[in-house]
Structure formats: structure tokens, C-alpha cells
Amino acid sequence: MRFRLLSILLLTLTLAACNLGASDNSSQEEPIDVPTSTPAGKPQVTIDTPQDGDEFVVREPLFVSATVTDTVGVTQVQLLANNQPVRTVLVDQSNNRRSQPVLDYQPRTAGEVTLTVIAYRGSVASDPASVTVTIRETQAQVTATSAPSNNQPVINPNDPNCRVLVNVNLNFRTGPSTDFPVIRTLAAGTVLPVSGRIADNTWLQVTSGSTVGWVSASNNYVSLYDGTVNLCRNVPVVQSPPTPTPRVTNTPVVTNTPTPTQTLTPTQTTIPPTNTPIPKPDLTITNVTGNTSLTIPSGETQVTATYSVNISNLGGAANQQFSVSARVVNGATYDVGSVGNLGSGQIISLTVDITFTTPGENTVIFTVDSDDDIDESNEDNNERFVIVTVSN
């Protein structure tokens, strides 16, 4: 009997062990939710104002307010009118996951205009956001206007005083360089009077409330208006405040008095120089202008158009030569030109003639530093593409 009870006990333990093993295997076969990183995707753009059907007057400033979001951060935003690039602004990299740029455009002729906004993270473009508005010859013909958004600027085109429109959030500083402290950040859509400039026209003195400060004059960030053809050329050159110097902390000097039995041997201590890192260049194509709707003439097999390419250096000086190229996808490659050097903050414009032989949509990719000669801080913003529609 004792033997039979022992046998039953052993059999029971064996079956329990089998059940436990089966339970473990079943658990391992269950699907496990493993967190995966979400691809960055494209930047997202919405146009806040104007709305479809809004009306404006020819030769008066028209403002497009947009909201741009991106999980990584956009680098620039472009406005097109009837597929022609008319305005490109850069986005502050310290706050580039969500921005609300204001892009200005001055229509030259009456009629319908399709306004398109595209945001870029380097060479990654958002899906275009578009609205269609009507341009009238006179204000009396305007019957539909949009409700202004919170950052929609108000500019009187007949005001002769020089004013600056802030296109993107912009630092307002105590002096005309990035060495000066930031007073505050000016929101996109802010309009301020201009009271002075420095001699090379790279910085403007402006007044916000009762505070006088400075903003960058780069057309990547601001637009100028003065109601005349002078384009603020009469703004006086003013003296810049002294460049701030780093605060020096005085360290007390401790003198050791030797004892009578101590002999001091003079020694020389060489302090190694401190190597200040030199900022790397950051070359980018900020704008491409040219005809994006072409027709091959009757009896011809091709059509040629001229394109202007604006190249900016957002980083340290590029002190060696670099090349710029243009490539038609599934087509020819063109040498746009070579640039000997490009200083920090400088912009250069090159032109190139491109020939199209294939009807339909042709994608042209413009590349700065196409031979990869420059060691840059950001290699992801060296390309800009344009779609050219060719018809017979």
C-alpha cells in the first residue's frame, strides 16, 4: 500500500511538471508588443490665412500665415504663387518643431492666384498646402476678405516710414550681432519701425514698445517695407554699442613664504593655449526661382529655361571652393557653378540654363557642395528640388 501511494504521488508530480512546462511554452508563443520607433515622416503644414476665395488688391502686400509641425524639426518654409517660388524663410533651430511663419507676397497682376506653402526638413518636403485667392485691380472691387489671424500683420503700403516685418520667431538683441544678449523673442507677424542700421546692412535697429534693440536684416528672417521705391535705403547708419566682453573672475594669488632652511628654485610654467573650436560651414539652397510651367514650341523637341539658385551659409566660413549642380531626374546633369568661398551668413546667387525634352512633370534636384568637398555641420540640407511641368 505504501508503495502504491508513493507511485501515485510521483505520477501526480510528473503530470504537474508537464503542465507547468506546457504553460511556459504557451506564454512564449503569445505575441509580445515591442515598442518600435515611429518614423519621422514628413513635416505637416496648414495655411491659417488667407482662405479659399479671399480677395486682395494688386501691388499691395498679401500675407500667408501657416502652422508648421514636425517631429524632428523643419529647416525652412517656402511660399509659391502659381507654382513660382516667391518667398523662402529659415526656421530657428532652437524652436523648429512647431512654428507659425508669416510669408509675404506682393501680387503684380489681377486674377486668380494659387498660394502654396511647403516646409522642408533638409531635403524632406511636406505635402503642399494650398489656397486660391483672387487679386483685384482696386480696393473697391474687393467683396470677400479673410478674418485676420492672431499673427496677421497690418502694413499700410503708403506709409513712407521704414518698417520691418518679422517672418519667423526672431531674437531681439541689445546689439547688432549674436554676441549680444537676447532681450526677448519677437513673434512672427510683428511689424516694427526701423531707426538705424550698421554700415554693411546686416543688422537693423528697431523699436518695440519703449525698448530699442537690434534684429538680423537677412531676408531669410524679415521683410522691409517703406511705401516707396527706396526699400529703406534712407535708414541712417548708427553707432553700434560696444561688444560685450566676458566677465573676468579675479583669482586671489597665494604667496608661499619659504622657511629659512628652504631653497627655492625658480621654475617656468607654460600654460597651453586653449583651442577654440571653429564652427563648421552649413551650406544650403534657400531658394530656386524660374519658370515651372513650360511648353515645347511647335516643331521643336525641347525647351530651355533659366533658373536662379540662392545659396546660403548658415554656419562658419567655407574657406575653400565647392561646386553646385542641377540634375533632371532620368535626365541630364548640369554644372551650375563653383564658389570660391562663402562667409558665415553670406548668400550667393547662381544661374543655370536647363533643357527639358520629356513632356509631363520633370523633377529637378539642385545640390550644393555636390562633390562633397566641404566638411559641414549639417549635410542633410544640401538639396532642393523643383517640379517643372512641360507640355507640347
Describe this structure in a few short sentences:
By secondary structure, the protein is mainly beta.
What would you say this structure looks like, in words?
The chain has 392 residues and is mainly β. It has one helix at 2-28, and strands at residues 44-49, 55-57, 62-69, 76-81, 84-90, 98-99, 102-105, 111-121, 124-125, 129-136, 163-166, 170-173, 182-186, 191-197, 203-208, 211-216, 222-225, 283-289, 293-295, 303-313, 322-328, 333-339, 347-356, 360-368, 383-391. The longest helix is centred in the N-terminal third of the chain and has 27 residues, at 2-28. It is globular and about 95 Å long.
List keywords for this structure.
392 residues; single chain; 3 domains; six-stranded mixed sheet; 7% helix; five-stranded antiparallel sheet; mainly beta; Immunoglobulin-like; SH3 type barrels
SSE map:
Layout: H1 2-28, E1 44-49, E2 55-57, E3 62-69, E4 76-81, E5 84-90, E6 98-99, E7 102-105, E8 111-121, E9 124-125, E10 129-136, E11 163-166, E12 170-173, E13 182-186, E14 191-197, E15 203-208, E16 211-216, E17 222-225, E18 283-289, E19 293-295, E20 303-313, E21 322-328, E22 333-339, E23 347-356, E24 360-368, E25 383-391
CATH domain class name of the largest domain? Mainly Beta
Helix/strand/pairing category: mainly beta
How many strands, what sense, and barrel or not for the largest sheet? 6 strands, mixed
Uncertain residue ranges: 15-39
Any idea of the CATH topology of the largest domain? Immunoglobulin-like
Total domain count: 3
What is the rounded distance between the termini? 103 Å
Helix content: under 10%
SS strand fraction:
35-45%
Q: What is the H/E string?
A: HEEEEEEEEEEEEEEEEEEEEEEEEE
CATH superfamily of the largest domain: Immunoglobulins
Architecture of the largest domain in CATH? Sandwich
